[in-house]
Design brief:
Blueprint: H1 3-20, E1 26-29, H2 31-36, H3 39-76, H4 82-107, H5 113-140, E2 144-147, H6 163-174, H7 183-194, H8 198-257
Parallel strand pairs: 1-2
Helix pairs in contact: 3-4, 3-5, 5-6, 6-7
Length: 258
């Protein structure tokens, strides 16, 4: 059974268990996120990508040579003896077989260089992730821990995502001071701020919602106060303009009487 089929079967078992047993605890790990945030993996992956680009270029060049030979043979065939045609066709067949062998060597599905070298990049990290998730599962009493790319799921609650704690532990294992510590020790040092129970999470959500509501009300009060101030200033300006106009009219009337 391959890895994907294995996780699929586990997912089906977990789903059926959820119906039968509401207390089932499930978590998941995003392996792609972990790989993309491991610096040594990104560097090695880029180096492998450069090799792949070179292999693909070599394949294109070999294929272009074969195509050129075929076209040349087709154009010259009327001028060649049957034996010469046969010899050239056999040469082309040899080149085609060599090209197919080269493709298998580089990109073969079972033991090609690409599959082999990529597995060498991923396997050490996957092994560490496996060991860490084993400890997390035991410590936090999870019934199942899946990888998000393998489990047959169309929805996953973020509160069940333990990816960041796994990544944090992986990076700590790379530090000289933490390298010789047991995973269980590192886990205890990180659990205090990485994991929160459901009640604490909901409390924090309510507090955030309350704070947002307060901020909105405060902003609305400030807006109303500013509007009222602007209205008062406008009325005062209009009053001053009216007084000034009356003074001018009064002065003009007094002048005309003289």
């Amino acid at each position: 059974m391959n890895i994907k089929a294995f996780f699929l079967s586990l997912s089906l078992v977990a789903t059926s268990s959820l119906w039968a047993q509401k207390a089932t605890r499930i978590a998941y790990v995003d392996m792609n996120y972990i790989l993309n945030n491991m610096e040594e993996y990104k560097v090695a992956s880029e180096q492998l990508s450069q090799k792949v680009a070179q292999w693909e270029k070599e394949i294109e060049e070999k294929q272009a040579e074969i195509d050129t030979r075929k076209q040349k043979l087709e154009a010259e065939k009327p001028l060649l003896t049957p034996q010469t045609v046969k010899d050239r066709e056999e040469e082309i067949q040899v080149l085609e077989q060599n090209l197919e062998d080269y493709k298998q060597k580089r990109f073969g599905a079972e033991n090609g260089d690409y599959i082999t070298q990529r597995w060498k990049l991923v396997q050490p990290i996957q092994d560490q992730v496996f060991n860490i998730t084993q400890q997390i599962g035991k410590t936090k009493k999870f019934d199942y821990i899946f990888t998000s790319d393998d489990a047959a799921s169309i929805y996953a609650d973020e509160k069940n995502d333990i990816t960041k704690i796994v990544l944090r532990l992986l990076k700590r294992k790379d530090n000289a001071e933490d390298r010789n510590k047991e995973i269980s020790t590192l886990l205890k040092e990180n659990l205090s701020f990485e994991f929160k129970d459901e009640r604490q999470r909901k409390l924090e959500e309510r507090q955030r919602a309350h704070q947002e509501a307060l901020s909105k009300r405060q902003a609305e009060r400030e807006r109303i106060k500013q509007k009222q101030l602007e209205n008062r200033q406008k009325r005062e300006q209009e009053r001053q303009q009216a007084l000034e106009k009356k003074r001018q009219q009064k002065a003009a009337g007094a002048k005309s009487e003289k």
